[in-house]
């Protein structure tokens, strides 16, 4: 397995820095990566090809995807979601330009922009539809349900 340079959601598919196998609930998982750090959360593959998140500290696991291919597609989908932003890029102004803008704002010539929450809601809806098409059980429960909850809450 190749080392992934992309770490969407902290998921790194890398077999060079993690143990080869772990046993969880009597089942062997081939370790294919980790989440954020190789010591806190491992990504493993069971004998049926399903992908699991495993926490060595807690000794527990949670289902991620039905296959490595589905996991990669989920990560790609999240990468695209995070690459698209609802906000305009930051602007750089001189002190004089900002003073002029502030004065115009105080005179009522510049109105604050309204939030674009609806755009984000539409993007979240599209993301969820895409994930369901890829691997519906994974999109509805397990490891991804927490991630999607954080997206819904605006944390991610």
Task: Write a short abstract of this structure.
The chain is of the alpha+beta class and 156 residues long. It has four helices and six strands.
Describe this structure in words.
The protein has one domain (8-85, 117-152). The chain has helices at 68-83, 95-106, 117-140, 143-152; strands spanning 11-13, 21-24, 27-35, 37-45, 51-55, 60-65. It is elongated and about 70 Å long. Mean pLDDT is 87; it is low at 1-5. The longest helix is centred in the last third of the chain and has 24 residues, at 117-140. 40% of the residues lie in helices and 23% in strands. Strands 1, 2, 3, 4, 5 and 6 form a six-stranded antiparallel β-sheet that branches. The protein has four helices and six strands, in the order ββββββαααα. It is an alpha+beta fold and 156 residues long.
């Amino acid at each position: 397995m190749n080392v992934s340079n992309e770490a969407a959601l902290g998921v790194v598919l890398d077999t060079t820095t993690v143990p080869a196998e772990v046993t969880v609930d009597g089942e062997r998982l081939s370790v294919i990566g980790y989440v954020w750090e190789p010591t806190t959360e491992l990504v493993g593959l069971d004998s049926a090809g399903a992908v699991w998140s495993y926490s060595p500290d807690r000794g527990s696991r949670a289902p991620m995807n039905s296959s490595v291919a589905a996991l990669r597609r989920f990560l790609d989908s999240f990468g695209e979601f995070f690459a698209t932003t609802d906000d305009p890029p930051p602007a750089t102004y001189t002190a004089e330009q900002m003073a002029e803008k502030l004065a115009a704002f105080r005179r009522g010539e510049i109105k604050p922009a309204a939030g674009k929450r609806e755009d984000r809601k539409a993007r979240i809806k599209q993301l969820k539809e895409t994930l369901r098409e890829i691997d519906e059980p994974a999109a509805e429960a397990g490891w991804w349900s927490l991630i999607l909850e954080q997206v819904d809450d605006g944390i991610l």
